[in-house]
């Protein structure tokens, strides 16, 4: 038959209070197996308390070639940052 | 793309690496960068996978439960390292199936050290101490390499590798403090693993064809000869602590250079093993290919089951 196992992206929460972070990927027949394999591949030393698996083909990623139009407009919007605004030194708690 | 445009892209790319920026999978990269990385990362992954075989040989015969769980955990780590590296390699646009095919057909290489046999329990000590020791020296600089997924995989690998070397040294220590026969076993293992471990760090700089380009891409931070010298300098005092003799009559501390001088390496042997004529090349490949082929029905069954479950879920929802 020979149908290959799809690729899954693995996200692990290392402890409660922290977000899930991308740890890597692996192949598995289905989501359940991806979870089980992720436990063995990415958390052999108590690296996690929660795992998410997402099939890689379901992720839509931005293209670095478009980074200019996507991210550069933010560069000249310094007024979004608190340091843009000048206040007298006597002002406290601001 | 015109040649001028390509050249411009290449220059920007080289500049990014020179500035210590990381390259990520979807970034533009020169074809040669991609190919070189596929070659090196896959070779590294294959070495982890084949590297399980010489040690797997001793799991059922480990002398105590403590040694058995440690060895089992080490071999499992190697499987894990292989998997981190394969998936890092796949981000460069090659499939897992292609990677396996290259290993199984002999097109891709793996570290020649795993083509030596592990004939006694002391070999588990020597492999951990020397082979993993040399691997660490090779791998630590790679945590900083320019390709993001490879660097991230290497950070994880290096964190786990230190236990491998320490458990090996502990085995050696126990044998060296045991009966004379046990100490002899340890010496015999050192005698057989010393030279192959030095070869593991790769051909001499004069013979190494990829060094210059690899240094530029930070795939390599030190040359093979520098790494080898570092390995020797740190390992000789460890052998002294064990009370073992390194099998090199020319090995001598050089006050002037601050390093050990050492004897001639038998590079003919190295190339023989690389070309497939080592003591266990055939055995290793047969074991690996056999495991893959005999596992086909399991992989197929898992896939059919997954598909069946998916269909059921859909028909339930309707």
From TrEMBL, chain A:
InterPro entries per the UniProt record, alphabetical: PaaB, PaaB_sf
Residues annotated as signal peptide: none
Annotated TM spans: none
Keywords from the named record: Oxidoreductase
Gene3D superfamilies in the record: Phenylacetic acid degradation B
Enzyme class: oxidoreductase
Pfam family, one: PaaB
Annotated EC: 1.14.13.149
Keyword Chloroplast: no
Origin superkingdom: Bacteria
GO-annotated molecular function: phenylacetyl-CoA 1,2-epoxidase activity
NCBIfam families xrefs: PA_CoA_Oxy2
Protein name per the record: 1,2-phenylacetyl-CoA epoxidase subunit B
Automatic annotation (TrEMBL), chain B:
EC number in record: 1.14.13.149
Gene3D superfamilies, sorted: 1.20.1260.10
GO molecular function: phenylacetyl-CoA 1,2-epoxidase activity
Keywords of the record: Oxidoreductase
Coiled-coil annotated spans: none
InterPro entries per the UniProt record, alphabetical: Aromatic_CoA_ox/epox, Ferritin-like, Ferritin-like_SF, PaaA, PaaA_PaaC
PANTHER family from the UniProt entry: 1,2-PHENYLACETYL-COA EPOXIDASE, SUBUNIT A, PHENYLACETIC ACID DEGRADATION PROTEIN PAA
Database matches in NCBIfam families: PA_CoA_Oxy1 (TIGR02156)
Name of the protein in question: 1,2-phenylacetyl-CoA epoxidase subunit A
Species this chain originates from: Kordia aestuariivivens
Lineage, opening ranks: Bacteria, Pseudomonadati, Bacteroidota, Flavobacteriia, Flavobacteriales
Gene from which the chain derives: paaA
């Amino acid at each position: 038959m020979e149908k290959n196992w799809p690729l899954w992206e693995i996200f692990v929460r290392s402890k409660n209070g922290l977000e899930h972070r991308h740890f890597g990927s692996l192949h598995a027949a289905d989501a359940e197996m991806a979870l089980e394999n992720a436990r063995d591949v990415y958390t052999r030393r108590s690296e996690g308390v929660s795992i998410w698996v997402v099939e890689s083909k379901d992720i839509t990623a931005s293209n670095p070639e478009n980074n200019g139009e996507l991210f550069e407009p933010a560069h000249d919007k310094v007024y979004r940052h608190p340091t843009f605004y000048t206040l007298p030194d006597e002002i406290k708690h601001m | 793309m015109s040649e001028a445009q390509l050249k411009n892209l290449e220059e920007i790319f080289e500049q990014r690496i020179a500035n210590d920026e990381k390259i990520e999978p979807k970034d533009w990269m020169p074809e040669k960068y991609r190919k070189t990385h596929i070659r090196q990362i896959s070779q590294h992954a294959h070495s982890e996978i084949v590297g399980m075989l010489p040690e797997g040989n001793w799991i059922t015969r480990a002398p105590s439960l403590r040694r058995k769980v440690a060895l089992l955990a080490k071999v499992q780590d190697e499987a894990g390292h292989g998997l981190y590296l394969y998936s890092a390699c796949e981000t460069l646009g090659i499939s897992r199936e292609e990677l396996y095919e290259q290993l199984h057909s002999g097109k891709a290489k793996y570290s020649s050290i795993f083509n030596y046999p592990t004939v006694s329990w002391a070999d588990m000590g020597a492999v951990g101490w020397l082979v993993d020791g040399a691997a660490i020296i090779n791998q630590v600089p790679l945590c900083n390499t320019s390709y993001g997924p490879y660097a991230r995989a290497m950070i994880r690998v290096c964190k786990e590798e230190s236990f491998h070397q320490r458990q090996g040294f502990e085995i050696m220590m126990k044998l060296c403090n045991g009966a004379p026969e046990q100490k002899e076993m340890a010496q015999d293992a050192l005698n057989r693993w010393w030279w192959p471990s030095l070869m593991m760090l790769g051909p001499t700089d004069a013979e190494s064809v990829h060094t210059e380009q690899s240094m530029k891409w930070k795939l390599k931070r030190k040359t093979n000869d520098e790494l080898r010298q570092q390995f020797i300098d740190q390992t000789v005092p460890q052998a002294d602590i064990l009370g073992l003799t390194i099998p090199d009559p020319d090995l001598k501390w050089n006050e002037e250079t601050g390093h050990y001088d050492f004897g001639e390496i038998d590079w003919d042997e190295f190339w023989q093993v690389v070309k497939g004529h080592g003591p266990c090349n055939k055995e290793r490949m047969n074991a690996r290919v056999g495991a893959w082929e005999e596992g086909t029905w399991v992989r197929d069954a898992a896939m059919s089951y997954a598909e069946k479950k998916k269909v059921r879920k859909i028909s339930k929802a309707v």
